[in-house]
Each structure stands twice: as structure tokens, then as C-alpha cells.
Amino acid sequence: MLIAQLLIGYSFGASAVLACTHFNARQYPDQPALRWAGRALLAALCALQAGHAAWLWADLPWVEAPWYGALLFAVAPCFYLLARQVLVPGAPPRGWRAAVHFVPMACAAWLPVHGCLPLAFGLGALYLAWLLRMLWSLRAQRAQWRQELALLGLALAMGVGVCGLAQWQAWRPGALFFAWYAAAIGLALWLVQVLLGLRPQLTQEVREAAQAASPASTTLGAVDVPLVLARLDALMRGQHRYRDPALSLAALAQELGLGAHQLSELVNTRLGKGFSRYLREQRIEAAKAMLMAERSASVLSVGLAVGFASQSNFYEAFREIEGMAPGRYRKLAVEGVPPHAQDSIPVS
Length: 348
Fold this sequence. Notes:
mainly alpha; Arc Repressor Mutant, subunit A; 2 domains
């Protein structure tokens, strides 16, 4: 019970942080529907946690109220609308296509909580199956996102476990079930924060991978592609725009006179990589030159100078692209060892 109570408190703080720092106009400037879906999901989870807190701490029967049952049915659709906009390129569902997902929520007022539990979690299992299918379609990227997908897999396993527990407890829900459910919500929010800490641009990278794999029609019909590519190269090599740690796809697209979707498609189709990968490569190339030109500069100062927000992000990107840490790259380059020969050099 104590762990559940601690995780309930954590849920409120984590939701506030995610709403302010992630689901904002800076992260998703051209996707208001995604921002609102994320905020609605966080609000629904916080309201459920409030019901759990009242039940566990004050013995108030909030979990038996009609609004609690409605919120049980709201979580899965909010999550679906959020995930769909990341994993399925194109316009988000609107009108009746979006509203139909909330029909069970509207019907929850006529169901007792012991009836809502199996139905809501059964519906959630169907949404989880959809998510697994979508992630499987991006399996070619698993090497790039190994850590993140492992954590996401753990979150999905937790979701399946809670669904199974809900079916078992459906006809006699008690404090134990609600404590487990509250703890699962808190742990899921913690995993989300860990994922975003490992790779802050993860959602953008997943969107780019999904867009690259999508057979959707091009958005570049009226774009002078060679001219825009030349301007992009000038911004990177001439003006060193990669040095801005806050540089985003939307901001760079605006400088080029494009929409974010257009720039994303341009980089994917004409350069053969996602925007996040392209930006990391620009920064790593600059870092390699700086590591050799300024040998007295610390590795951290080099990483920050080329636009990485932290040492961990710099090291992760350098290892991903060059296959070694930046300090080792500098050492081998000073010794005159070609980078491609580094695998045969013993680590001292």
C-alpha cells in the first residue's frame, strides 16, 4: 500500500512535468491534436489516481462513482489518439472517427464499477494489440532503439498484466486491485520519463521512421527540391545552425519556407535518413573536426559547442555514428590510426 501511495503522489508531479515540458507547442508546433491528446491522457490518469488516493487513504468510495467508470473507458482512446498521430503519418482522426472511440465512455454511467472493469481493460487490450502491430511494422529500427523498445515492452507487459488482473478482480474489486492499478500507472509514467530522458526526440524519430515507411502521397509536389537542399546545406555548413541545441524540425522548416511534414519527407526521401539522424550527423562531423583542431578542449565542451544538450547525448550519438567514444576517436586520430581500423586496436 505504501508503494502505491508514493507512486500516486509521483503520478501527479510527473503528469504536470510532462504536460509542461513535453506536450507543448515547442515540441509539437504543428500538431495541436497530439498535444491535446497527450494532455487529456495525463488528466484522465491523474483523475483516476485521485480516486485511488481517496479510496486508499480516506476510505472514500470514489472508485465506485460513475465518473470513475467513465475515466476507465477514456484512458485507452486518449492513448490511441496520441499514439496514432506518432505512428500513422497523415491527418489525425477527426469528427465522428475520433468520437466513436469515446462511445463506451458515454455508456459507462449505466454500468456498475465491477462491470466497467472487465470491459474497459478488455478494450484496452485491443488497443495494446494495435500498438504492438504498429511497432512490429517498425522492427527494422529495433537496433537503433534497443533500450527504448525494451522499456516500452516492459510498459506493455505491465499493461497486459493489469488487464489480466482486472479480469480476475472484476467481480470483487477491492483495495488490493486498486493499489496495484495505482502503482502500475505511476510506474508507467516513470518509464515514460526514462524513455524521454534517454532520447528526448524519440517521438519525432518514430514519426520520421513511420513516415518513411508509409506509402502516402508526396507533399513535395510544388517544392523546388534542389534549391531547398542547397539552402539546407548552406544553413548547416555556412551558418552552423546545428549548433543551436533547441533546433527543431519545425523551426528549420520555417526558415526554409516549408512545412514540418515537407522537410521531414525531403530529408527522408532525398537524404535517406530521418531529420533527427541528419542533425546528429551534422553535429558529429563538426565535433570530429573540433576534436582535432582544438586538442586542448575537453570532450564535453566540444559536445556542447556543436549543439548537444548534455554529455550523455553527445556520447550516445558519437558511439551510434562512429562506433566509439569521442575521446577514443581523438586518441586514435592523433596516433594516425584510420577510423575504420579502430576495431583491431586493443582498448588501453
